[in-house]
Amino acid sequence: MPGSIAPDTFERARRFFVDGNAAFAAGRLAEAEACFRTSLKALPGRPSTVANLALTLQRLGHDRDALALLDETLAAQPGEAALWSLRGGVLDALDQPAEALASHERALGLDPQRAQDHFHAGTLLLRLGRPQAALEALEFACADAAAPAAAHHRRGQALLALERRDEALAAWDRALALDPAFADAWADRGTLMHERGQDAEAVRCFAQARAHGADMALMDYQIAGLAAAGREGATSAAPPMPASAPRSYVQNLFDRYAADFDEHLVGQLGYRAPEELAGGLARLGRTHFRHALDLGCGTGLCAAPLGAFVTRLDGVDLSAGMLERARALGRYDRLEQADVVEHLAATPWRHDLVVAADLFIYVGRLEGVFVGVRRVLEPGGLFCFSVEHLDDAAGDCALLPSLRYAHSAAYVRRLAQAHGLGVAALQERPLRRDERTPVRGLYAWLSAP
Questions:
Q1: For residues 153 and 174, what is the distance between their CA atoms, to the nearest angstrom?
Q2: What does the alpha-carbon distance between residue 449 and residue 431 come to, in Å, rounded to a whole number?
Q3: Which residues pair with 389 in a beta bridge?
Q4: Where does 223-338 show beta strands of DSSP type E?
Q5: 326 contacts 298 by C-beta, under 8 angstroms
Q6: Which CATH class is domain 250-447?
Q7: Is the pTM of this model over 0.70?
Q8: If exposure means fewest CB atoms within 10 Å of the residue's CB, which of 241, 281, 295, 385 is most exposed?
């Protein structure tokens, strides 16, 4: 006990600190907060009490209050590594990864042996697209004999990002040896098994992930896609075809893909759906539209070819990363992050042109889209889109091994008729290349009466 503190003051602070810990452990968070604050009034700035109060505030959902508390304390006591570490966790929760990383690095500057901060730094470096630096941090974290399964799992993700697949697999196996119920490790292992053509093993991994709490819809989608490949052993656990790709799958996929999307899709795969759809408008003699809506606008690849046809152009997409790239173009009058079906059902705007370039490869059943489009499409308006082409004999739509949906011309015609749309044009042309082979595409231009 510091000599400058009266014994009764220290005892009061200690008692409320202990009571706060008990309340926190019992889930009585408001009581815990009150106890820790009372303790800090007796002994201001005590690091252990500040840490516990910050954790309590976080658990209550008051992340910014926790950050303010930590900032105030660290301004006076910058040598507290544990508080810098906790500050990094709060900033991570506030989705500020660069600032969170800086806090963990401050903690490591004070105590380089803090394995947990190496782990958190490695995780943040992965999010920031720096896999080599992430691996170095995670190697340190995993060198600790007590390293948790999560550290080995993250190390595997860093290795995969560096295309060191065999080592990634070994890291995930180590994670699963430590924690056989680690759903994310099972899911990542399943994806890698699928890449290797070991679909039966991939299905087993996804089923394990599902059993241990992974996103059920996402795992069923993965298993259904593997069953579509038709390889021996891959179909026994297949669920019915999902009506659409899970929202989380699409959002995460394109958030990660955003930075390289245009160069990969256009430069490497020869993607031309936006140009084909715009060309079809010209062939139909429709050269001006008052207010167009780009469904699943992505990075804005439709903006340039549609620019000569439209006065106002709005876009909607699930991916924040994609919308950020589209916004930088300066060609959209309004952009919204939303599910397209939900947007079509709720928007107050009406449009004389609705475009969806390669969106429906992740939608599957299109009835909900057509209901929404019919709601927002003005009389005389056009709805044009592309799909991967499925033979009529194969049904309405199918989930392909690529985890993309294909749709038949018969299905498109039937949907158009059911929703009062005329088929102005329906043409089969390639969408892009896949391993140097053209992907069959179907382009549709449908008109409202």
A1: 8
A2: 28
A3: 407
A4: 289-295, 310-317, 334-337
A5: yes
A6: alpha beta
A7: yes
A8: 241
